[in-house]
Amino acid sequence: MRIASLKAYEILDSRGNPTLRVKCFLEDGTVGIANVPSGASKGKNEALEIRDGGNRFFGKGVLKAVRNVEDEISKALVGKNALDQWLIDKTLINIDGTPNKSRLGANAILGVSLAVAHAPPTYLRIPLYRYIGGISARILPVPMLNFINGGWHADNNLDIQEFMIVPKGFERFRDRIRCAVEIFQTLKDILKEKGLSVSLGDEGGFAPNLSSNKEALDLLMMATERAGYKVGEEVFFALDCASSSFFDEERGIYRFEGKELNGKDLMDIYADYIKNYPIISIEDPFAEGDYDSWREFTSKFGDRITIVGDDLYTTNKKLIREGIEGGYSNAVLIKLNQIGTLSETLEAIEITKSAGWKAIISHRSGETEDTTIADLAVGTNAGWIKTGSVARSERTAKYNRLIEIEEEMGI
Question: pTM, whole model, 2 decimals?
Answer without folding.
Answer: 0.95
